Amino acid sequence: MTREADVVIIGGGIVGCATAYYLARRGVRPLLLERGEVGSQQSGRNWGFVRQQGRDPREVPLMVEANRMWRTLEAELGAGIDWVQGGNLALAVTEERMGLFEQWLEVARQHGMDTRLVRRRDLDQIVPGMQGDWVGGMYTPSDGHAEPTKVTEAFARAAAAHGAELRTGCAVERVLVRADAVSGVLTERGEIRTERVVCAAGAASMPILRTLGLNLPQRLVRATVARTTPAPPITRAGVWGPGVAFRQRPDGRLNLAAGGATDHDVTLESLRHLRLFLPNYWKNRKLFRFHVGAPLWRDLRRRVPGAAPRPELDGGGEPVPNPDKVRRSLDEFRRLFPALPGLAIERSWAGYIDTTPDVVPVLGNVPALDGLILATGFSGHGFAMGPIAGRLVTELIVDAKPSLDLHGFRFTRFAEGARPAARSVL
After folding, report:
1. pTM for the complete prediction?
2. Distance separating alpha carbons of residues 44 and 42, to the nearest angstrom
3. pLDDT of 278-292, one tens digit each?
4. What element of type H or E holds 178?
5. pLDDT tens per residue across span 331-355
6. What pLDDT, on the 0 to 100 scale, is given for residue 302?
7. What is the pLDDT of residues 268-326, one digit of tens each?
8. Beta-strand (E) ranges in 292-360?
9. CA-to-CA separations, 423 to 106, 159, 279, in angstroms, rounded
10. Burial tier of 75 (Cβ tally within 10 Å: 0-12, 13-18, 19+)
11. CB 36 within 8 A of CB 199
12. How crowded is residue 403: how many other Cβ atoms within 10 Å of its Cβ?
């Protein structure tokens, strides 16, 4: 393995692979390190939605540009990624929810987006034959969806074709520092010298940064997704309702999720930064379910010297899908489309989403440590933002200035006490 690199990228998800690709295209020699396989974590396990609507206002300029990039990504990468620009529809069963959508329209107008409110009578044009007591929804025709694993792997192949080096099965243990500047990384295979490190490690970012004395407020939530047997064409839109979210793949199969509801596996880390996370948690508390189980016991046992091995507790951290959510998602989907015969679940899976207190990523330089750039904490938005995040990190490294304002994503905002008002997840 290379022992020196212009830039080391930690993490082989879509953000890391996109960063490797754009850096290589600019003539930089990046080395990407991934402890598992490319796209094996949340970048290959998410819904596949690429939406501009409903975002935190700080994210909207990035997502508008990302949407433009997504439209030509298949041609640029020379790979099929199942890109479908069929729009995104968020459904509402109450006028209160419609009121939140209407408030968000002002953000859309400021950025020239094609988002509009739709009423019950309009829904049949977007999702023909869908049943349910809907008041209406919010619809952005220019949004789309794609296949997560295909996209991440396409970025990885294109990066390698332009000269990037990608090493899988190689975990980074810590970032090396000399005189307040990055000097390299220590991996399980040895040391690599570099003056630039991009931390795009998603859920693994917090422990890596903690070895540097950097306090990243990060929580992991477990999201469950299921895939059905093939169905006749239903809609090209990605649909997000209170009980179920879904998109239809080109092969007719549907990806189903529980409408944004997530699980949190309680550990001792759950108590850290509690005051930072509490406002947004309380605002969206109906979307969270807390579980006490093996993750907490593993955490406790690590703090007990000489504890005897317990394989059932000391095993790996592979997230387990929530079977109740799989069942409820399918039941709700069948309720919406009762005429679909014989629809069944083929497989289900789960992934860990890394979230921040304000549900907005950390993106940019770390002032206290020259050469370290963070691209993490995407809070479930990393797939859609992957291309623009990779390009902006590249601009920071090559041009020393990104083409879009990243001030709202700065790492120091938490220590500075910048706490935007809690907002409902749209």
Report:
1. 0.93
2. 5
3. 888 778 777 777 777
4. strand 172-178
5. 999 999 998 888 999 999 999 999 9
6. 66
7. 777 777 788 888 877 877 777 777 777 766 766 666 555 444 333 333 467 889 999 99
8. 345-355
9. 15, 37, 9
10. exposed
11. no
12. 11
Q: Tally the residues of the chain.
A: 426
Question: Given the DSSP bridges, would you call strands 197-199 and 190-193 parallel, antiparallel or unpaired?
Answer: unpaired
- The Cα–Cα gap between 85 and 133 comes to 27
Residue 337's Cβ-side half-sphere holds a number of Cα atoms within 13 Å equal to 19
Task: Using the Cα atoms of residue 168, residue 173, residue 176 and residue 180 in order, give the sign of their dihedral.
Answer: positive
Enter the CATH code of domain 1-84+143-218+357-426. Answer: 3.50.50.60
The one-letter amino acid at 161: A
Q: 31-41: per-residue pLDDT in tens? A: 999 999 999 99
* Domain residue ranges in the chain: 1-84+143-218+357-426
d(CA 89, CA 216): 33
Output the six-digit token pair for 111.
Answer: 């950025």
Single-letter residue type at 86: G
Distance CA(253)–CA(227), nearest Å, equals 7
**pLDDT(234) > 50:** yes
